[in-house]
Structure formats: C-alpha cells, structure tokens
C-alpha cells in the first residue's frame, strides 16, 4: 500500500486491533470522547491532543506527529543532525555484543550529560517523501537520526531485510509498496509492535509475526536513546561500542539474530 490512510483511519485501526473503545482511550488520555471522535472522523489533531494520545497508547509522541502529518516540534527531534554519521555504527557494533554488554552500553548512553541544542534539526532528504505509509516509516527512521544509508546498514545487521540505501528513498517516495515482511522488520528496529505498525500503515500481515529478537529489542532502545546525543558524544559511544567487541576486525554479520 502506498496511499495515505489519514490519521483518523490509522487510529481507528489501532483501536480495533487493541479492542479499545473510544471511551476507554479518552479516559486514559484525559480527553473528552467528543475530541477523540472528531479525530477519528478526520479532524486534524492538535499538538496537545497528540501528546496525550501518545502517553495513553504507549507510543513515542514523535511517531504520532509523523503519522498525523504534522511538523515534529524541534524539542522532540534528535539533538544533532551530524550524529547520523555515527548512529548506525553504535547499533551495529552493540548488537554484536552479548546482552550484558548491550545493557552496559545503554546505561552509559543514558548517563551522558545532556548538551544544549544550538540549531534546528533538519533530516537529510535526498528526495521528496509522500504522506503515505512508506513516507511515514522513513520519517520515523529519520527522527531516529538514520539517513537512507543508515537505515540500510542497520536493518541489514539487525533483521533479514537487506536493501540498497536508494530503495528506502523509493519506499519513502511511495514508489515501492510496503510488504508484510518489510513492516515486520521495520517494526522491530522502531520498537513498535509489528501488528500495530501493520494496522497503522494499512498492511495485512500474512502470518503471525515472530517476536523480535533480543538484539532487535536492544537495537531499538539504543537507537532511541542515541537521539539525544551530540555528534561528539555519538562518535565517542560508537568508538566505545567497537572497542567492547572482541572480534571487531571481523566486520558485521548480516541478519545477526538469524545467524
């Protein structure tokens, strides 16, 4: 599917998947049912409403802003665009570590001081992105500070998806449809339940998705936490992750969890 469902339709599909009523969602979000029903009917949600929905649904607010087609507030964006050079390597080296090593690296990232934001985050876009599901997924990765090459490298190591960097631009431009296989692997790295990402993108999964591997779960957590780092901090963590590997000279295994 390459067409745009509309945020109201996406939300309706998600509620149906969770067997959640409008009243239940409104209560959890601290909203009125009239507000929620208006969004379901196609009204553009406000920033405040999206933040409430994100908390109630357990989503990162930035992902709901992207799905709703709204500009992401700068305070929700990654700290530094230049950190995208190092982000893929943080994740790729980290997932080659044992679970204890990945947990230690995540702990170290969270302990780093928060540096000040000095500029507006502008994700690198080599081609226009559509408002369809492919464009939304690529934007989600962009707001995790992965450009096309970063998406390609990271997915190849963490999941069975092994595509060229340019292909992610084609997906984002709506010229290549999302498949159940792609949705499942994208969901693993985004830290989103595969069935729920399928509901949000209008994709019908042909099979019950397997639970993501422990490496994929940790990769998604690392990818999210690294967003707040400066380029210098990201480079430091990348170099640290590589030195923690005993076999770092061997390069990277493709689809590491499946080897």
Give structural notes.
By secondary structure, this protein is mainly alpha-helical. The protein folds into two domains: 7-75, 434 Repressor (Amino-terminal Domain) (Orthogonal Bundle), CATH 1.10.260.40; 81-258, no CATH class. It contains 14 helices and no strands. The protein is globular and about 55 Å long. The mean pLDDT is 93.
Number of strands: 0
- Calculate the terminal CA-CA distance, rounded to whole Å: 31 Å
Main sheet characteristics: none
Low-confidence stretches: none
Reading the helices and strands in chain order gives HHHHHHHHHHHHHH
Number of DSSP helical runs: 14
From the structure above, extract its key features.
14 helices; 2 domains; 434 Repressor (Amino-terminal Domain); mainly alpha; 0% strand
SSE blueprint:
Elements: H1 7-18, H2 22-29, H3 33-40, H4 47-57, H5 61-67, H6 87-94, H7 99-111, H8 133-142, H9 148-158, H10 165-172, H11 180-190, H12 194-201, H13 214-225, H14 231-244
Condensed summary:
This protein is an all-alpha fold and 259 residues long.
